[in-house]
Amino acid sequence: MENSKNKIAELTVMVGGLFSATLLTLVVIPALYSFFSKQHLTQ
Prior knowledge:
Blueprint: H1 2-42
């Protein structure tokens, strides 16, 4: 029983890490690039 609890916790961490890395790659980094790119062009 204890082993299955550890696997569930490990799976939760892995899924959370994959989700946050995907979100960072597809949303946050392009948004920051776009923001700083436009800011650089106006100066």
